[in-house]
Structure formats: C-alpha cells, structure tokens
Specification:
CATH topology of the largest domain in chain A: Naphthalene 1,2-dioxygenase Alpha Subunit, Chain A, domain 1
Radius of gyration of chain A: 22 Å
Largest sheet of chain A: 8 strands, antiparallel
Oligomer: homotrimer
Order of helices and strands of chain A: EEEEEEEEEEEEHHEEHEEEEEHH
Number of strands of chain A: 19
Number of helices of chain A: 5
Number of domains of chain A: 2
CATH superfamily of the largest domain in chain A: Naphthalene 1,2-dioxygenase Alpha Subunit, Chain A, domain 1
CATH architecture of the largest domain in chain A: Alpha-Beta Complex
C-alpha cells in the first residue's frame, strides 16, 4: 500500500471556490432533459438545458443577455427559447434570433454562450471551459451504456459539501466498513489494498480473497456463506469522475457464475460548498427484475442519502469555512488515493 | 424613439447599496399607521411610525438611544412612545421626555431623530436625508388624492430585489406584452414609443392608435372589439416614484366616454436587495362598484405578485451579487427611459 | 449610586467575536450529559460531551483529527468514542487509541484536545483556555448545590444575541419594572441602588425597605399585602457568571419566616451572536412542592423566553452587526454595573 506522508502534501492553498473548467462534467441524466426548460447551477453558472425537436439536448447560459432573467422561466418554441420578460428569442446555438423591439436589429452582444453538450455513455456531458471541447477527453464509461451486459438504476443527489469531500469519501472505501452496515464485510482483516497512478488517473484497489459476500452481493444472488474472491476497485479521473468495479468471483473449484456490479459516481460542483452527485448502479444478474431494481435503489438511497450525505455535510459544516487541507488533517493509509487526487487537482488549478 | 448605445452608459460603478437620502419616499399608506407602533426598515434604517392623539402621523428612529432596542416593541402613551426595556419615554418629535432612572436627568444624547413625515396625495411621505425637507419637492401625485374623479385600490408588496430593477421594469412597459397575458394587446405592431427627459423627470410614452382595448380596459367597461386610441405614459422622478397614465379615448366619430386608469408605483428601498413597492390603481368608471374594486385588486395581484415579482426576484438572484450595469447588459430600444433614470441616479449618488 | 459618565468608558473597540478563553464556563447541566454523545458549540468550537462508564463526564473536540467529521455522529464504546466515518477511536483524554487502518500506527497528530471538565456546584464547568485550569477559579456558586436549604429548578435557553447584551440585562434589574409584569413592584420609588466592585467582581445591589412582596414572593408564600424588606443583589464575575440573591425579610416586629430565592445566570457564548443561557432558580420554601416547581418554571420561562429573549434578540438585530458601545449608547444611572463589567471584559481581552 502506498502511504502519503503529510509533509509532502501541499494542497492547503487550494481555493475550494475555484473549479477546473477545462473538463467534461455530467450536466444531467438524459431523461431529465426534455422539451421543458431545466435550470441547473453548474460550477457557479446558471445553465439552461432542453431538447430540440429532433431530440438533441442543448445547453445555454440561463441568463438572458438583456436583463439577465433566467431563460428557464420562459418557454421553448420550436428549437428556440423565448425569454419571458421581453420576448428575446435564442436558438439552440445561443444566437439571438429575434428582437421584437425597435427596429429589430440584433446587437452582437445579444448572443449567448452555448455550451458543448454530448450524450455519451448514457449521460449528458457538458464543457464549460475555454479549451477545445473534445469528447475524446471524457474518460471511458462505456460500461454505463452497455445494456447488453448490465441492468442499471441511476439517480442524482444534492449534497451540501464541496465535491472534493465526496471524492475523498469515494477514494477511501474503507469507510464502508464503519458507515454502511449494508455493505460491511464479516472479515475485514483479509482486505488487501493498493493505490496506483497512471498519468492523472488514480486507482484504489481493494481485494478480499476467499471471503463471503457482503449484503450487496447477496442481494444480487450470491449465496449466503459461499466464499469467493471479492474486489472493489475505484478509478478516479479529474476532476471528479469515478468508476467503481465491484464484484465477487467464484473460487477455482467453484463453477458458480460471478457477480459484477460496477457503479459510476459522477460529481459536478454546483457551488464551492454544494455538489450534484450523479450515480448509476449496474449489475449482471437479475437484469429484468424490476423488484430488484427497486431494492438496489433503496440500498443506494440508504447508503448515499441516509449514511454518506449527512456525514459529509456535517464534515463540511464542521470545517466552518476553512479548507480541509489547511487544517492539517491526519493522513492515514487509506487516504493515499484521495491525497493523490487532491494533489492532481491542486496542480491543475495552479497551472491555470 | 431615443435609443441609448451601451457605450455611453457609465453606471457600472453604482453601488446598489447606496441610496439617495435627500429625497421623499413613501413610508406607508395612511391607513397602515395607527395608534399602535409600526416598524418598517427604510433605506436600511429602522423607522417607527405611529399616530398622535390628534391623528397626525409621526416617524422616529426605531432604536432607543439607551440600549438600541426597537421602540416599536414598546407602547404608545398619549402622544409619546415608551421603551419596553427601561421605560424611557420619547415625544413625537423624538425628544426624550422622561428618564425614570437615577436623578431623572435627560442627557442631550438621549434624544432621537424624528423624520419629517407628511401626508400628501393620499400617502405618507418620509424624508431621511440631511437636506431641507421641503414637501414642495414631492413630485405631483395630486391624482392619487382626487376622490372626486377616481376610485382607487392600493396596496404594498415586498420584493426581494433592488429598487432599480423594478424601475427598469416599469420604465419599459414593452414587457407587458410578454409577461402579462391580462394586459397584452392584440396588435402590438401599432405601438408608438417615445422617451423624453425634462430636468430629472423622465417620460416613457406609448400610444396605440385605433386599436381595441386590452383586458384591463374591458374590465373597466370598454366594449369588446370597439376601437379607440390607447395610451400608457409613464412618468419617473428620482429616485423611484412613478406615475402611469393609462387609458383609452374614443375615436373622433365616437361619443363613448373615455377610460382613464392612472396608477402610482412608489418604490422605497428597504435594503440594497429588497424593496417596498407601494401601488395604487385609480379609475374613472364604476367608482362605487366594490366588486370592481375586488376584480382590479385581483388583476393587480396577478400582475405584480404573480408575474412581475417572481421574474424580478429571479433576475436579482441570477445577478449573484453583481451590479447589473457592471455585467454589460445588451440595451435595446425600450431601455431608453430606464437607462436615463439609472444615469440620473448615478449622477446624484456621485454628487454625494 | 455610582454613575459612569459615558466619556470615561472606552469599550467601543471590543471585538464581540473575541472571547475570554482562560475562564470557566458552564458546558451543560449534569443531567444533560449521558452515555450518548452530546454536541455543543462553545466559544465557536465544536465540543463533544459524554460520560465514562464510571459516570465521570468528559469533553473533547467534536472533530475527528482525520477528516474532521463530528465525533458526536459516532458512538460511545466503553470509555471511548468511535468515529462513524473510519472507525478511529479516542479515549476520554482525547488520545487516539485505535487506528484500524494500514499498520495501525497512531500518528501523534491524531490525538485530540480534551478539555478540563469539572462537576461543581451542580453544574458541569469547562475550560477552553491555554492557561492552567484551576477549579478554584470557578466563582463560588455553592448555593447551587445546597440541597439542604434549597429546592431548585433549572434549564438552558438559547438566545440569538451576544452574551454581553444578556450581561447588561442582568446587571441592570431596573428593566424588570418595565419588561416583567410578574416581577414588577408596586412602589419602585422606595428602591435604593448601589454598585460595588472588588477586584474583578461587580455587585449591583437593590433594596426596597418596608414594601410589599412582588409576584414571585407571593408565589413563594409571602402573604399578599404584608410589608417586608426586599433585596435583589446581583453578583457578576467575568466573563458572564451571575448570582442573584433575591428575597424578602420580615420587618423587625414580625416573626414571619423570610424568603430566600437566589438564582444563577450562567452565560456561555456559542458564537459572537448566540449564547447558551443556563439558569437555576432556588427557593427556601415549598421545597418538596412539585406543583410549585412547575409554577416557578413557568414564571421563569415567561420572564426569560417570553419577555427578555425577544427584546434582547431584537436589540442584537437592531445593531445590524455593529458593536453596541461603538454606537455611543446613552448611559443612565442603572448602567453603572454593566459598564464596569464591560470595562473589565475589554481589559481582559486587550491583555490577550
């Protein structure tokens, strides 16, 4: 296991109000965006989301260029949005296409920013930065869209905490043993842990050999008491896109099928102290079992909303406005991956 | 129409937290002020309003000179107010007239500011400034008190927005066409518009010749489908006192009576981001018709509370603390009057 | 009576956000602290309170050294507290005694501050300062624990005001005459008042000779209309610990028993603008009368929660963020004691 001595970490000066803008973030799950305007604050900016008649989802600044009223208070007409206040009309590319006033001339400054928005891997990704919006820079979440192998349930949770506190949480799954009774394992001492970094991608691997399955595995069909080789491998890409490969494989002399239950944890900062947490749980068993869908959703809500969210929000509150790294937290072995992630974010922010 | 190119406007540096204090503002409608103490924050100052036994309304700082408790928590005794905390008693002129403690001597610093308050044009006007409080400086709203010609309904609405955003709204009535279905006209292309300025008074004139009446005119008795010459003329005096002359006159060959429905829109800042909006609707028809009173009140509540208020408050929120002019809004033709008003306010504030 | 001319008072520069930390404060009434974790913010710091198995109450920083989550979200195990997030375990002395991660080594920085906490005079006192925590420095409140002479009822009230506004209130009991009808006396002109200071202890004495008892005295058994010598003597010790000796003694030719009803008013700042107000009412009559307990509690709630609290909170709000002394309040005769107390606090804060 890689351990990071506190002395080498220098992220205290990170301004948690600063965001990495040259990056893809999830703006919404596809079914959240319809022909009705949807307003969402992303990286402190008001964003309007809606679909054109041909079904393509678009994202504009949710702030009319004239009096700065939210366009989301207006209505969608054909492919355009019409401001509720004075009737200015904007195309899905942000261009002002109609000024009903005076001589109808459209000042160049009337056009609005449209943000690149792509539907990929079963999610809607937005680019709010200055650099080139190359969808190839979205980390690989092909698994999210692999309906042939996996059934999935997904949702979005609002958390009153800085996104990095959630990243810390996810990159240190040792907390499950304490905070999540439903995910606890009976024999934690058999855990092996390793942190790896490749470029700016960080992995946090957990293995548990020859153990019984936890509550989630049993829910997915793994028999009570049967031993297998468990794994929980978290992959993080900056700023806050995580893929968790969780599963249990049969022992060598066992011909039972293995269970794969990957999940995606896609964090989009709303403000410096609030975050949109998009999650998706996949599974390779009971793919058509809608009752199982509901049980998995309930387990997720219990773990995230009932257990993680109150603790992370209490943590944010307990910081009383300070940056956590500036308060010199004690760093323990399982913080290795989270510390690497924070250092990568700090370097990117410092690079401007 | 006068149009104001953005480049000539230099109001970005206006501190929306600063108020013009040498000016008359409406403190209350007369029937709001009684023998019971009324507290109201005006221009960020706590003000106590009550009536003397002879019915004269007075205004004092609502902050005892001793421990700064609101006097409005106390009670009125004869013409004085008695502090609930230690019994200091103040006359309607702000003088401390009784100190029940020690030797009863009254320190000079115990006296409170009393603010000039006059009942004029059917409203109570307050002067919070340093300069001479000359009631002749109240703009002419004689129409408000003209009970011989007009029936009226009035009210006050609390808006979570800077008063200048409301001034913008009122000086650009083109928004009615988009935001107020009940006031929309069927043939907006026949609108003529003109902006005029005389000293520091700004007018925004709208005419619509030979058109049918809108919903308000029909409510006031103008027959459906009959054509006439409509007008909506807004007069603005600094800082935020507006008189709207709305009506429809019969065509030359028509002997139907015309309809006059002037209204007053009197804005008093509470704080930099909240405003007391006093409104009064008058009409020269159905003067004794209390059912019509109720319908007009309902229309006003629908337009102001149901339509304007949420949009203006969303606009304030969308500014996220910035001054709107510092964000370089696109200025369109109908902004001419509002821009003049903002420039006059900026000049007054700059002059100190 | 000692009167303090305003000119000699120089407490305007006091930062009400600064607290005297080298002092004992009440953290809780003993029965509030159990085997379940209790979180309380004291002097802007999160504090965890709980009892060891042997019943001894302890106080730790309520902020895990690892990720700063409140330990009060965790659970008590034997004499230790276990963090809910990653299972770190801390002894009642604040030492981290178990790190379940990695090699289990415990970094020195993992230990938490434990705060001296003593149970004395029927209250739990905490020391949050740097200096030596000598319980002998707790002012004498032996009367609080004197169950042989007194029955008592106690409670704690949360007040949204700086603690010094409450000290002002308590050191100037002349306000009772105006704010508390239940404590008003019929003949206030016979009041004598004196302020004394000895070291940093301030007394404010009120005597009323040969008067009838007020509502409280009658509630405690003093007959309606019988005359006696009343007293209300307040003792203040910095920063905000007050003992009030209230009672009525029979006249020389009267063999009726006297009534003693001392009370303690122990203020602990929560933040610069909020305070925990611990109160205890004692009496030497009806000591086993639980109905009387209830009536006294109701009287206290009426006076503190119903009468003092709204006025003091309105006072705090009316200051709109300013320090009261910086606003040059008029100082009257009954402010003598409160002004001395403020001067002592200012001197202590200035001394660092």
């Amino acid at each position: 296991m890689t351990s990071q001595p506190a002395a080498q970490v220098d992220t205290a000066q990170v301004d948690t109000g600063a965001f990495i803008t040259d990056a893809w973030y999830v703006a919404a799950w596809p079914d959240e965006v319809t022909r009705a305007p949807l307003r969402r604050i992303l990286l402190n900016r008001p964003v309007l989301l809606y679909r054109r008649r041909d079904g393509v989802a678009v994202a504009l600044a949710d702030r009319c260029s004239h009096r700065f009223v939210p366009l989301s208070l207006g209505h969608i007409e054909d492919d355009d949005v019409v401001c509720c206040y004075h009737g200015l009309r904007f195309g899905p590319d942000g261009r002002c296409v109609h000024n009903p006033h005076g001589d109808g001339a459209i000042p160049r400054a009337a056009h609005l920013p449209a943000y690149p928005l792509v539907e990929r891997f079963g999610a809607l990704w937005i680019w709010l930065g200055e650099g080139a919006a190359d969808p190839a820079r979205i980390p690989d979440f092909a698994i999210l869209g692999d309906r042939a192998r996996f059934a999935s349930v997904c949702g979005v949770m609002h958390v009153a905490a800085n996104y990095q506190l959630i990243t810390d949480n996810l990159l240190d799954l040792s907390h499950a043993q304490y905070l999540h009774p439903g995910l606890r394992v009976a024999d934690p001492v058999r855990l092996r842990h390793e942190t790896r970094q490749e470029g700016d991608t960080v992995w946090s691997f957990f293995w548990r050999d020859e153990g019984v399955g936890n509550g989630l595995m049993r829910l997915l069909g793994w028999p009570e008491g049967r031993r297998g080789n468990s794994r929980a491998h978290m992959r993080w890409d900056p700023p806050s896109l995580l893929l968790l490969d969780v599963g249990i494989a049969p022992l060598a002399d066992d011909d039972a099928p293995g269970i794969d239950a990957p999940s995606a944890h896609l964090l989009t900062p709303e403000t410096a102290t609030t975050t949109h947490y998009f999650w998706s749980f996949m599974r390779n068993t009971g793919r058509d079992d809608t009752a199982l869908d509901a049980r998995i959703r309930a387990l997720g809500v219990q773990a995230f909303v009932g257990e993680d969210k109150p603790v992370i929000e209490a943590q944010q509150d307990n910081l009383r406005g300070a940056d956590i790294m500036a308060m010199n937290p004690v760093l323990l072995a399982p913080d290795a991956a989270g510390t690497r992630a924070r250092r990568i974010i700090a370097a990117r922010l410092a690079a401007g």
